[in-house]
Design a protein that fits this description.
Low-confidence stretches: 1-6
Oligomer: single chain
Number of strands: 3
Mean pLDDT: 87
Largest sheet: 3 strands, antiparallel
Order of helices and strands: HEHHEEHHHH
Helix content: over 70%
Shape: flat
Number of domains: 2
Strand content: under 5%
Length: 166
C-alpha cells in the first residue's frame, strides 16, 4: 500500500467534523478529555482521523445522543470497549485454558460494567417517566373534576391518556 493510498483513508479535522456532524472544537475537546486518542498528524501538525477514529466518534455520538450519557459515562463505556478489544487482539488459539479463562473473565467483567451503566441510566429514565405519568394522572383527575363541575364533556380525551400507562 502506498503512502498516498493510505493517506486517502484519513480525514483532516474539518472533513472529520463535517462527516460526524460535529464541530472541530468538539473533536479537539473529545481528544482533550481522553475520549479520542490523539490522532495521527501530518507534517504541518494537521490532525488526521482514521476510519477507526471515525467509528469511535460515531460511537461517542450514539452514547451521547441515543442514551444521553455524560462524557464521564461515555469514557467509562469506551474504556471498557478498549479493554475488550485488547483482550481480543491478544487472544491466542494456542494459549492454555487458564489464560483463556482469565481473558474471558476480564472481558465478561468489563461487559457487565457496561450493562450496569446502561441499567443505571434506564432506571433514572424509568423513574422520570413514572413521575411524568403520575403528573398526567393528576391532571386527568383534575380535568375530570373540573369538567364535571363545568357540565362539559370528557376533557381528557386524546392519544396521550391512552399511552401513559403502557
Amino acid at each position: 500500500m502506498t503512502d498516498s493510498t493510505s493517506q486517502e483513508r484519513f480525514l483532516q479535522i474539518g472533513e472529520a467534523a463535517e462527516r460526524a456532524r460535529l464541530t472541530q472544537r468538539t473533536l479537539r475537546y473529545y481528544e482533550e478529555k481522553g475520549l479520542l486518542a490523539p490522532p495521527t498528524r501530518m507534517e504541518g501538525g494537521f490532525r488526521l482521523y482514521s476510519p477507526q477514529d471515525m467509528e469511535r466518534i460515531e460511537r461517542i455520538r450514539q452514547l451521547k445522543e441515543l442514551l444521553g450519557f455524560s462524557l464521564a459515562e461515555i469514557k467509562e463505556m469506551l474504556d471498557a470497549e478498549d479493554v475488550r478489544l485488547q483482550i481480543r487482539a491478544g487472544w491466542r488459539a494456542d494459549a492454555d485454558a487458564a489464560e483463556k479463562v482469565e481473558k474471558l473473565r476480564r472481558a465478561r467483567e468489563v461487559t457487565l460494567h457496561q450493562i450496569q451503566l446502561i441499567d443505571q441510566k434506564m432506571a433514572r429514565m424509568a423513574s422520570l417517566r413514572d413521575e411524568l405519568a403520575e403528573r398526567i394522572r393528576k391532571y386527568d383527575e383534575w380535568l375530570l373534576k373540573h369538567t364535571e363541575a363545568a357540565g362539559g364533556s370528557d376533557a381528557t380525551q386524546g392519544e396521550g391518556r391512552a399511552t401513559v400507562g403502557s
